[in-house]
DNA sequence: GGGTGCATGTAATGGGTTACATGATTCT
DNA sequence: AGAATCATGTAACCCATTACATGCACCC
C-alpha cells in the first residue's frame, strides 16, 4: 500500500527543503539535524537515493559545483513540477504515525521494577525536558532577531512553539508523577486525579 | 549494534504483559491495542516469532489449551528467568527514540501551502486531540472504579495522565497557532511569543 | 599523526507492518 | 449469504539506520 504514489515522506522533505533554497544532499542532512531535528529525521542512506530518483523524475535539477581541494557538491534545485508535487503533498491530510514511547512502556510495567527505578527514569526525563525547553526558548529568541523579515519565520516559530508546549507539559507531568510515586512508597493511595482535574480546568480556559 | 542482547523491545513488552497474567499471543495483540495503544504498538508479525524465541530461551513457558469448535490457544506464562530479564530491562535508562511528526513537517513548509491548508490540518488535529482528551478522562474514571485495588493501577494512571497532559498541551498549541495563522492572513506581524510567555509562567508554577 | 569537517554514495542489517493461508463459529 | 471474532503463524515488503568505502584539507 503506497500512500503517495512512488515517493515517500523523505522525498517530500527534500522538496520542502529545496523550497527554502537550492542545496546539496549534505546540506539537507545538516538542516535536518539543526532545524527540524526536534520533530523529523533523515539519514544519508535515505537522502541520496531519493534525490537520484527525483532527479530522474524531473522534480529536481542537479548541478555539479567543483571547488578545488574538496569534493564536488551536487546542488539540487526545485523544478516547476517539483514545486507542484510539494504543494499537492502539503494538502494531503496528515495521518498520525504510530507512537512508540519506551519511557511510558517501562512505567506501565513499573510495578515490577525495583525501588527507585521508576523515579530515576523520571528524573532523567525531567532534566532532559527542562534542557529542551530552554533550548527552544533560545532558538525562538535568536531566530526572531536574525530572521525578522523572512516570510517563513512564522512557520518555524509555530513548530518551536509546539516543542515548548510539549516540553512544559512533560515537565508538569513528570513532577506530578514523581510526587505520586513518593506517595506510593509512603503508603497512601494518593491522588493522581486531583492533579489531573486541576490541569484540565486550566486547559479548557485557553 | 544490539542494545539489549538478543531481545528487542517487542520481547520485553511480551514479558511485561505476562507479568500481569498468563496470555496467548492473540491476547497480547488485544491488550496492546486497548491498554497501551496510545504509546505503543505491536503486530502479530512481531509477537509470534518473539514468543517462539523466548520459549526456546526459557523466558516463557507455553501451554496449549484446546477448546472445541475454535482454534487452540497457546497460553504463555512468565518463568523465573523471564521475570528476572524483565526486571533487568526495566532498569536500563531510556534512550528517546527518533521522532517523526508529519504534521509539524508540513507546517514547517507551510509557507508553500495554499490558503487554508495549514489551518485545515490544525483544525483536524485539534478535534482529534479533544476527542482523545475525553477518552483518557473516561478511561481513567472507569479504571479507578473497576480496578480500585489492583496494585498496578497507579502505574496505568500515570501513563493515562501523560496522555492527558499531552493532549491538553496539543489543544492549547493548536488554538494558539490557529490564531497566529489568522493574524498572518490579516497582515499583522503577530504574536507567537506573547502566547508562549504566558503559558510558560503557568507551567513553572506547577 | 590523528581527529574533524567536507562530500557522495552503496551495502548490510534491522525493525516493523501488511498480506496471505487456514478454518470453525456466531452475529447481522 | 456475508462479515466479524477467534486464533496461529509465515512471507513479502518497506522504510530507515549504520557501517563501509573514498579522499582531501585543516587544526591540534
Strand content of chain A: 5-15%
| C-alpha geometry of chain A | elongated
Biggest beta sheet attributes of chain A: 3 strands, antiparallel
- The helix/strand order of chain A is HEHHEEHHHHH
Q: Identify the most extensive interface between protein chains.
A: A-B, 80 and 82 residues
Chain oligomer state: homodimer
Structural class by secondary-structure content of chain A: mainly alpha
The average pLDDT of chain A is 90
Number of helices of chain A: 8
Give unreliable regions of chain A as ranges: 194-200
Helix content of chain A: 55-70%
Number of strands of chain A: 3
Distance between the termini of chain A: 40 Å
Radius of gyration of chain A: 22 Å
Descriptive notes:
The structure is a homodimer of 206-residue chains. Chain A is 64% helix and 9% strand. Chain A is mainly alpha-helical and 206 residues long. Chain A has a 3-stranded antiparallel β-sheet. In chain A, helix 1 (9-20) crosses helix 4 (80-91). Residues 194-200 of chain A have low confidence and may be disordered. At the A-B interface, helix 1, helix 4, helix 5, helix 6 and helix 7 of A face helix 1, helix 4, helix 5, helix 6 and helix 7 of B. Chain A binds a DNA duplex (28 and 28 nucleotides) through helix 3 and strand 3.
Amino acid at each position: 500500500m503506497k500512500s503517495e504514489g512512488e515517493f515517500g515522506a523523505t522525498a517530500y522533505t527534500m522538496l520542502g527543503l529545496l523550497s527554502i533554497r537550492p542545496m546539496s544532499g549534505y546540506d539537507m542532512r545538516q538542516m535536518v539535524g539543526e532545524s527540524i531535528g526536534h520533530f523529523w529525521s533523515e539519514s544519508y542512506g535515505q537522502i541520496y537515493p531519493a534525490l537520484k530518483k527525483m532527479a530522474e523524475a524531473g522534480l529536481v535539477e542537479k548541478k555539479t559545483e567543483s571547488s578545488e581541494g574538496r569534493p564536488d557538491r551536487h546542488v539540487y534545485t526545485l523544478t516547476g513540477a517539483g514545486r507542484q508535487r510539494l504543494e499537492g503533498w502539503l494538502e494531503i491530510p496528515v495521518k498520525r504515525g504510530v507512537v512508540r514511547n519506551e519511557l511510558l512502556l517501562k512505567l506501565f510495567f513499573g510495578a515490577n521494577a525495583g525501588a527507585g527505578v521508576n523515579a530515576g527514569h523520571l528524573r532523567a526525563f525531567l532534566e532532559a525536558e527542562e534542557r529542551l525547553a530552554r533550548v527552544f526558548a533560545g532558538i525562538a529568541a535568536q531566530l526572531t532577531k536574525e530572521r525578522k523579515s523572512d516570510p517563513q519565520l512564522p512557520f518555524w516559530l509555530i513548530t518551536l512553539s509546539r516543542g515548548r508546549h510539549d516540553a512544559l507539559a512533560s515537565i508538569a507531568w513528570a513532577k506530578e508523577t514523581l510526587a505520586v510515586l513518593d506517595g506510593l512508597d509512603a503508603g497512601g493511595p494518593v491522588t493522581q486525579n486531583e492533579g489531573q482535574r486541576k490541569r484540565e480546568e486550566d486547559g479548557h480556559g485557553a
